[in-house]
Amino acid sequence: MPAMMLLWGVALVLATAATTYVLHKKLTHGRGPEPDGVFWDVFGGLVVIAPAILVPAVQWSPAGLIMVFVGMATAAGTLVSIRKVERIHAAEPRRRTGFPDDAARHTSILEQWRQYELDPARTIDFPAMTDVRAAETAALTRAMREADYCKVTAGTDYRAAVERLAEALTAAERAAGVPVPSPR
Predict the structure, then answer these.
(1) Of 134, 160, 131, nearest to 147 (Cα)?
(2) Residue 70 has pLDDT above 90, yes or no
(3) Quick check: 125 and 143 in contact, CB under 8 A?
(4) Using CA atoms, how far apart are residues 31 and 53, in angstroms rounded to an integer?
(5) 100: which residues sit within 8 A by CB, 6+ positions away?
(6) What is the Cα–Cα distance from 56 to 62, expressed in whole angstroms?
(7) Helices assigned H by DSSP within the chain
(8) Rounded-to-integer distance, Cα 109 and Cα 97, Å
(9) Phi-psi region of 92 (alpha: psi -120 to 50; beta: other; left: phi over 0)
(10) Which residue has the higher pLDDT, 96 or 60?
(11) How many CB atoms neighbour CB 96 within 10 A?
């Protein structure tokens, strides 16, 4: 009897969690192309949930009550977990307003700096751009690290970090003697 209760308990928890998750997704994010999808999801869940409650109750009447509470606790726990995960996802940096523009600017600045690292002629012409002993170049590398950190960390100001990176690159280029392109 205890092994059967455990088996039905596991089936109940898994079926309740899966059904709750699927229903929440469909009711929150759209039902999909099939109009009867929610009905079939509920039906499929109940095909497992109902026997998981009723079969143990036939053997021992308090087991049905215990299983109902286990099912309700599982559904509540699943909903709480879903909401917590959604809050975490909403705080992700890539979901911030203007993130694609900031990321494109960040990439553009890094591409500009990589020219000094990867082009031998530019490395020879402007050695200070790769020499971290120079204060401006050291500040540039710190700004790169900060922008990379802010790009993936919630609660940081990525846009401001990219702006500081652009300013640090301009200051390092000025200190290294890189000629400013003339406006056309």
Answers:
(1) 160
(2) yes
(3) no
(4) 28
(5) none
(6) 9
(7) 2-29, 37-59, 61-90, 99-118, 120-125, 135-152, 158-176
(8) 20
(9) beta
(10) 60
(11) 16
